[in-house]
Specification:
Elements lengths: L1 H14 L6 E5 L6 E3 H14 L10 H10 L4 H4 L15 H15 L4 H16 L3 H20 L3 H6 L3 H15 L1 H16 L2
């Protein structure tokens, strides 16, 4: 039991490092960039609040678990913003390999039963094929959109993002898992880009 508890506490201490990983997206008030720990917490809250946007049969508890775990690999890899100058790296073979290695290390800190369970949830989120993961991925994509809208454009201004880029990089993923939510958000983004 002591070995198990030591492993669990070691993992939790390692997970605390996620709070030091800075993202490109700012807080809604634009005062500073958010960290990945804040992002994960906010996404879990998104899942709780927006659960009525999920397809029938989506298990919100599983979605929340995926969202809490999904960015832990950023402890080793860092945040790779989808719209940045390095955005081409987002989803690249190199980044995916680094994330898998990080998942091996981080989830490997846990006792095997928990490590396997958490790793499976992370893999499911990354694959974005199950209804739970599709909805989780939709929320992961929509939250930065809402942060950018609230902060006057945020990283869209910084990275020169166009409405077409937002639609192709973000909109299609949000619409896949939460079509009504994306229709609502799209009205806001269309107005924002039109006013520029």
């Amino acid at each position: 039991m002591n070995d198990r508890l030591s492993a669990q506490m070691g993992f939790l201490l390692e997970a605390d490092r996620l709070k030091s990983v800075l993202r490109a997206t700012t807080l809604a008030d634009g005062s500073r960039v958010e960290n990945s720990g804040e992002h994960s917490w906010h996404l879990a809250l998104y899942a709780m609040v927006l659960r009525d946007q999920a397809a029938p049969g989506v298990n919100i508890d599983r979605v929340m678990r995926m969202l809490i775990l999904h960015d832990l690999v950023e402890i080793d890899v860092g945040d790779v913003p989808i719209h940045s100058a390095n955005g081409a790296a987002h989803g690249s073979a190199e980044v995916l390999a680094a994330e898998r290695a990080a998942a091996d290390r981080i989830f490997g800190l846990l006792p095997p039963d928990l490590g396997s369970e958490f790793r499976a949830l992370w893999e499911e989120f990354e694959a974005a094929e199950s209804p739970d993961a599709v909805f989780a991925k939709s929320l992961d994509r929509v939250q930065p959109v809402m942060q950018n809208l609230a902060s006057g454009g945020g990283t869209w201004v910084t990275y020169g993002v166009t409405a077409d880029q937002l639609e192709s990089r973000v909109g299609v993923k949000v619409a896949r898992g939460a079509p009504t939510l994306w229709a609502w958000v799209q009205e806001k983004t269309t107005a924002w880009f039109a006013a520029r």
